[in-house]
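Next up, a specimen:

>
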Amino acid sequence: MSRTVVAAAFAASLIAVTGPALAADAHSRGAEPPAHKITLDHGRKWATDAPLREGMAQIRKALARHHAAVKKGTMSDAGYAELGAAIEKNVASILANCKLSPEADANLHVIIAQLTGAADELQAGPAASHEEAARKAMNAVNLYGRYFDHPGWKPLA
């Protein structure tokens, strides 16, 4: 289990014990907030900041670089591990640097949870699950583009 997941699980348990006051600050500590269904901001996409846009652009770039091999089923286990490490690195950067409103942050964490789970599976999961984990990460970045305002964002096909 990665350090990111362990830290997120620990912080989530703190939120459950100490209540909503810590939930608003969960993002700055890398915590996963309580279960949340992703929504728009009153019909609009959520605002983003530069660290979020940069981190998500890097995740998308890594996924796009491996997209054809994933679709064809020709990616190596080492390639999947490299992809998982790239996702994990950029998620960590997002968590450390991104500053969003509590409402936007709660929605972002739905996507972060999907990316973190995919990254862990890409790096440590059974080889048979790597292709599905890569597809989950691709779906997460596409979800990000539907719910967050990131100028020029293009979904992965």
Q: What stands out?
A: Residues 39-147 form one domain.
